[in-house]
Design goal:
The protein is mainly alpha-helical. The protein is 66% helix and 10% strand. The chain has helices spanning 3-31, 34-59, 75-104, 113-141, 146-152, 157-185, 189-218, 224-234, 270-287, 303-307; strands at 240-252, 255-264, 291-299.
Length: 326
Amino acid sequence: MSASGGTRAIVAALGANLAIAASKFVAFAFSGSSSMLAEGVHSLADSGNQALLLVGGKKAQREATPQHPFGYGRERYIYAFLVSIVLFSVGGMFAIYEGYEKIKHPHEVEHWYWPVGVLVFAIIAEGFSFRTAIKESNELRGSLSWSQFVRRAKAPELPVVLLEDFGALIGLILALGGVGLALLTGDGIWDGIGTVCIGVLLVLIALVLAAETKSLLLGEAAGLEDVQKIETALVDGRTVTRVIHMRTLHLGPEELLVAAKIAVRHDDTAAEVATAIDAAEARIREAVPIARVIYLEPDIFSETEAAKGPDPEATPGGPDRHPADH
């Protein structure tokens, strides 16, 4: 993902949410609408989330250290996970609690023009932010559907902003519906119901974000297209005859680790193998520029060993050789 594209989407969302939050709190002060209060807290939480994403992006740019030799690229995943926690707790659970209280103790919405006017303004502002996120995402999405893009993106910023803005727009429509029904019926309970619906929506979005960022934190492999490019780049048909096995791991959105065991000819000299490995690394970096950390192990391919299949003992997370030792 282009870091600049993600930053533009975050800044656009941050500016929109700060303006919207201020207007919603003003509307709540004049009307007493719980939907307005919930939406104000939602926008404030979203603003904090965008600030977290900016901080995470900045921290991820730090140089590698002896203690963290692979750098700090995963800081972006950590801060994106914090966003899901904030959205769940501050946004979703607060809205559900506020809506429950309003349903138990309903009161009529006062000065209806304040919440309605603010909601219309907020829909326009959120629409602008959502449009920016869609435009930046389309440059990277390619032929993927939106759900595939959210699931497969290795950079968390654009999926987070997309889901937040989408949730904000749906929440605003729910708030407008709750306020509208409260005004039409004269029963403030509809305002509370709209608020609960907003809270449930935010909780669902937070759970989706948490699941996606958890997967990134655990460590995801390169996409299928990049894996195929790397495998093609590895084999030159002369010294490197095939890939025996390979693993990839995202150290960050824009940094990939490649570890592979490659087959070389049994009569090649050490100098020829070393030269072939250097050339293979250069081809990989040309084919997939984000492949910055590459470890290649030369070996002699054996049909007999290959027929046995992969060794589960050599797989990270595989069976424990000595369970009694623990």
